[in-house]
TrEMBL record, chains A, C:
Domain of life: Bacteria
The keyword Oxidoreductase appears for this protein: yes
CDD domains hit by this protein: TPP_PYR_E1-PDHc-beta_like (cd07036)
InterPro entries linked: THDP-binding (IPR029061), Transketo_C/PFOR_II (IPR009014), Transketolase-like_Pyr-bd (IPR005475), Transketolase_C (IPR033248)
Protein name: 3-methyl-2-oxobutanoate dehydrogenase (2-methylpropanoyl-transferring)
Cofactor dependency: thiamine diphosphate
Species this chain originates from: Streptomyces marokkonensis
Length: 334, 379, 334, 379
């Protein structure tokens, strides 16, 4: 568990710092992707790395995502630790075969002889006014692929800690970066040294007794806001930030739901076949007799991500979350 | 069966299957990009065509400038300008017959407009009120394709389908130098050549894929050389020479129409502006390079040819400029109006018939909007 | 609704017949894929079509799945109705970008101006002793992609009826063919004319009062067997065959669960992030107060599909289903 | 800024950026496949190498036959035979140094075995007790890759990584003619050429991708011509001439090792058996074609050369045959034993540490197996 002192920064800068520290600590860490070198990435998350570590350590690749991930697999086979950037969520799809058929399976296929310590950074989600193909929530695809870890930070500190852990992991990690939090600063405490966060642990962001909001990534701040707003309605909401979708922290989540007796899963991804189904189902399996109401879901609609001018209608917002909380059969209580 | 039984007379015969499937020699591009303007070839060019190209180039440049200005005013979410590449954009559109199809890449709004699509509808994607703003069937223009190179197999399939139906239709597909690295770039021309589909691939090599220069993209002698590996001719053309681009594309279209199969054209050009309004090009290239290219400007090249040949004078130049200003003013006016938005549209086109799940969700949103509309519900 | 007389046949033959009838009825139907022409497909499902309709109607393509699906998109744009065969589940992954970014979105993107009447046939699932990459259950990926219909037959009659409906649909349909049922004949009644089945309707395959098994595709016969075996334990199980995962037939499923008060979702696909989570969650949301126990899931384990010699340990079998039924809190009843 | 201001002297200068990145001429393959056996070039071949190739070819043929026999006995789930392609399989393995890496495609069990991997471990995938049966690091052989062409970028990445680390390592990657149509085939050599990675691509053009003949796969003059589009040399070789394949690959390996970058080699050969034991080749090709190719058998070709030059006699042939029989008998014996199976292995290697979810599932299976093992629980 490394301890590193950091300066105040946005989530984007914390991510940069995590890569920088990882590269400084371990010469086998290589960053690669489209525009990650000279430009520093379209979100500037790899800014300065090529300058500091040279183009061989932070490499502008040809424009071909399957090739990027596929060559990263070969580099990992030879003992490097590639950190791959997919420029946007939807542009990771060309690499899907490499991801599912090789990245996720290589360790298992070779009985552990050929692990792939690979981090795949994917800026994901909407809310930034992006045109089509720039705002997908693709986490359901990754969750349904055994062999991958799936991690997503919601705070600046976690961005650092979880990315360090992802890079240090001996298994492939799909590291989902909520685009609309890239410039968020709120939860970062510059005075406190930031530690590497173990992967697989959810965290209670806000304690409450009325009901649990289970969420992750871009929806965490929305849920925090909803929890504040809920006070006016007399609800004291707990907010659980999953941080890791795979492995899933049943313990933390179920402990919360057993305490509160009610839960709403909140995410931006489409509802049908999205992460919320899995989460609701497993919470229900484990906490059935503690539940006063079915676990509800607040999610994006089941449609292709909307154009910028309509995205606000799609994204789960405070009202929609409070609506769902209101449907948690409070009558049963009284 | 056993090896020994097979022994016998010494046989230096060639392996049975070997025969080159195509003669490679005619497939190879010329060593130098083909040029018309300022060369003897210019004499053969049709004056009417040159004048038309000129008018469109001037309008195209103005359109690019106007669209970029609209991003600054918040009227467009983003705009990838094709300033400096107008010769390719315009020639691609003008070379096609009405019944043909154009498959643009995300930077090719100009080609879409030059093909006849309403200038505002062409910007819907980039304004953000919807995705594709025009009816692709109306002008036979596929949606502007953001996932790079993915539109190329569509063009092949469409051209193939038209041929199967006996229709005399050619598809022209556009892609950037960066896009040539994608797997879809490979699969599309391969299918096209095997099927001898009437399709023309136009690669605009503008030197960069966002910040990545061509040298980091490929080690090929030229992108046109990739054609050989598919068994189709590769053609190299000066992409800032509108007459040359038009001629090379016209040849390829003619060949495709006549059943001669696909052609791959590399047009060498330059992206004069940043990748988009959101990009900072100074991070990856110097002014000097941009300046050099500005000396090889497509409009200036054509203007010189036209004036040198007495086909254009100050009045003509001024009138082209005026037309462009008129277009720009109209565009500005239209884009300064807020587009009509109906959130219910979100559910209207996911399927021919909305699923029960979507109907539920639609009604949820309708209720939310109704609640929002009530005074006390307003936030 | 077409009515066609058919001869006794395996599921594979019923599928062939469906394509044949569709091709005969509509000259815009084109079959394409790897080895579908001369060979008739590696499972012989397209056997005879090239001979009968010519190679332009049933075409051996180059070996490139993105190219196959991508050119099919272009053909559909021009008014054809391509029926694409992906040779095996895992070999559909190279076409993932085309599927997600174009096939699923084209109608929506163009405000309905450019619908894509495309059928994508994917032989899926295990139980046939296939080596790696030949037995994936990839339905979770398709379910999580709005814009696609996802359909899977479990009987010979449905194979015909649903494939006809898929080909006739004006929207893209991912048509999942359970490989291990290709040679099944049981539920086919040669005397009865086979009709086109509307997409989106689940069917009760077996009525019962104790609990509902919710399942689809390759697991339907397993559930039927389990239901028979359950009689010995005193359970009278209802079996619902979903047939269509998208759209989802909440009505039929929930009506059954409300009747029985208990449910188990059964599928071969990995459990975590698999279809069962969605199904369990939505049933619970809708039937909470009718449930005597949480909806349980019997699924494949969360691992890369096992090698042939170990696959029987992975696949949900009768015992595992009965085990789950046994955990449906029957004490509560008495 | 405005167009008019840019007018001036007529400038027919070439566009600034144009310069071919590579001289295309040396990249082009020869018109005829390179051959050694039965030509003058044979005189220069190393007798020891030829004898070693011969022994491996004979063993390889026998291995193929034995493995196919094992499928009939239910001892293998499936076997894609490389009968007729042994020259490529063997040369690919023999041309590499110990420190080099081999990236085989699914049909290349023979290359894997010739590289030194245990013949039974090489068959694990096809027997079905596990996926990859060998430790890839032990002999530097990547897993046999079933998803076609996907192993090619791995080879490029590995070679690139070795070069970055300053290690003198070459990667040789194998793929079939059908596999060249995949997007990954395109992306891998492009990366290799841009990075000048020390990798050699060997395309075995055996005429078919399952049932699909080359003519439906590509219209390229040859598959070797695809090299030009990546800026690497393409080489065409008679794939049934073991000496020629070895020489061409050795040249390419040497070039890669010396920092000269990647090479693409097309070996023209023929798949004499059906695609796999489960395939019926009579559906798509006639006996006559197969017979023609049998006349150009790699073992017979080499045997003739060796006997003609007095490097091999009946005794040598017989002894090679005997060695092959010994290998086959050992393989048979080992494969006739049931492999040790532990269902718990299913959970052992999904991650370095099993997730809580997998631990739960593992315990579930453990309990089920325990129950099964009890007499009353047995089914
Ligand atoms: C599949 C895919 N990957 C990445 C991107 C992100 N992206 C948008 S434009 C661009 C560069 C394109 O370069 P080029 O093909 O040369 O076209 P140009 O921008 O020069 O017109 C990139 C990487 C994308 N749109 N699609
Ligand atoms: C991505 C992918 N698509 C389809 C398949 C199914 N498949 C297995 S082998 C084969 C033909 C391969 O032909 P070729 O590349 O020429 O190799 P050969 O079999 O001749 O050795 C096909 C289509 C596959 N394994 N991977
Ligand atoms: Mg470019
Ligand atoms: Mg082949």
């Amino acid at each position: 568990m490394t301890t590193v002192a950091v300066k105040p920064a946005t989530m984007a800068q914390a991510l940069t710092r995590a890569m920088r520290d990882a590269m400084a600590a371990d010469p086998s860490v290589h960053v690669m992707g489209e525009d990650v070198g000279t430009l520093g990435g379209v979100f500037r998350v790899t800014d300065g790395l090529a300058k500091e570590f040279g183009e061989d350590r932070c490499t502008d690749t040809p424009l071909a995502e399957a090739g990027i991930l596929g060559t990263a697999v070969g580099m990992a086979m030879y003992g490097l630790r590639p950190v791959v950037e997919m420029q946007f969520d939807a542009f990771a799809y060309p690499a899907f075969e490499q991801l599912v058929s090789h990245v996720a399976k290589m360790r298992n296929r070779t009985r552990g002889k050929m692990p792939l310590p690979l981090t795949i950074r994917v800026p994901y989600g909407g809310g930034i006014g992006g045109v089509e193909h720039h705002s997908d929530s693709s986490e359901a695809y990754y969750m349904a692929t055994p062999g991958l870890h799936v991690v997503t930070p919601a705070t600046v500190a976690d961005a650092y800690g979880l990315l360090r852990a992802a890079i240090a992991s001996d298994d492939p990690v799909v590291f989902l970066e909520p685009k609309r939090l890239y410039w968020s600063k709120d939860s970062w405490n510059p005075e406190e040294p930031t530690t590497v966060e173990p992967i697989g642990r959810a965290v209670v962001r806000r304690s409450g007794r009325s009901a649990t909001l289970i969420t992750y990534g871009p929806s965490v701040p929305v849920c925090m806001e909803a929890a504040e707003a809920a006070r006016a309605e007399g609800w004291d909401l707990e907010v659980v930030d999953l941080r890791s979708l795979v492995p899933f922290d049943d313990e933390t989540v179920c402990a919360s739901v057993r305490r509160t007796g009610r839960a709403v899963v909140v995410h931006e991804s489409g509802g049908f076949g999205g992460p919320g189904g899995e989460i609701a189902a497993r919470v229900t399996e484990r906490c059935f007799h503690h539940l006063e109401a079915p676990v509800l879901r607040v999610a994006g609609f089941d449609l292709p991500y909307p154009p910028p001018m309509l995205e606000r209608h799609h994204l789960p917002g405070v009202d929609r979350i409070l609506d769902a909380v209101g449907r948690l059969q409070w009558e049963a209580e009284s | 069966m056993t090896v020994m039984e097979q022994r016998g007379a010494y046989r230096p015969t060639p392996p049975p299957a070997w025969q080159p499937r195509t003669d490679p020699a005619p497939l190879l591009p010329d060593a130098e990009p083909y040029r018309v303007l300022g060369t003897e070839a210019a004499a053969g060019a049709d004056p009417e065509l040159l004048r038309r190209l000129y008018a469109e180039l001037v309008k195209g440049r103005r359109y690019n400038a106007q669209a970029t200005a609209l991003t600054k005013q918040g009227r467009l979410a983003v705009y990838p300008s094709s300033t400096g590449q107008e010769a390719c954009e315009v020639a691609a559109a003008l070379v096609l017959e009405e019944r043909d199809w154009l498959f643009p890449s995300y930077r090719d709004t100009l080609a879409v407009v030059a093909r006849g699509v309403d200038p505002v509808e062409a910007l819907t994607l980039l304004r953000g009120d919807w995705h594709t703003g025009y009816d692709p069937h109306e002008h036979r223009v596929a949606p502007l394709s953001t996932p790079l190179a993915t539109q190329l197999p569509h063009a092949v399939g469409l051209a193939h389908a038209a041929r199967l139906k006996g229709d005399d239709v050619v598809a022209l597909a556009m892609v950037g130098d960066g896009g040539t690295s994608e797997g879809d770039f490979h699969e599309a021309p391969n299918f096209a050549a095997v099927w001898q589909a009437p399709v023309v691939f136009l690669v605009q090599n503008n030197g960069f894929a966002i910040s990545v220069p061509l040298a980091k993209q490929t080690a090929a002698p030229s992108l046109a050389h990739k054609a050989v590996g598919y068994g189709m001719p590769g053609r190299l053309v000066d992409g800032n020479d509108a007459a040359a681009v038009h001629e090379v594309l016209a040849d390829a279209v003619r060949r495709a129409r006549a059943g001669g199969g696909p052609t791959l054209v590399e047009a060498i050009t330059y992206r004069v502006e940043a990748h988009t309004n959101a990009d900072d090009a100074t991070r990856y290239r110097g002014d000097a390079e941009v300046e050099t290219w500005k000396q090889h400007d497509p409009i200036a090249l054509l203007e010189r040819e036209l004036t040198a040949r007495g086909l254009l004078d100050e009045t003509g130049i001024e009138s082209a400029r005026q037309d462009a200003e008129t277009m720009a003013a109209a565009l500005r006016a239209q884009m300064n109006q807020d587009p009509a938005l109906d959130p219910m549209d979100l559910f209207a086109h996911v399927y021919a018939e909305p699923t029960p799940q979507l109907i539920e969700q639609r009604e949820q949103l309708r209720a939310e909007l109704a609640a929002e509309a009530e005074p006390e519900g307003a936030q």
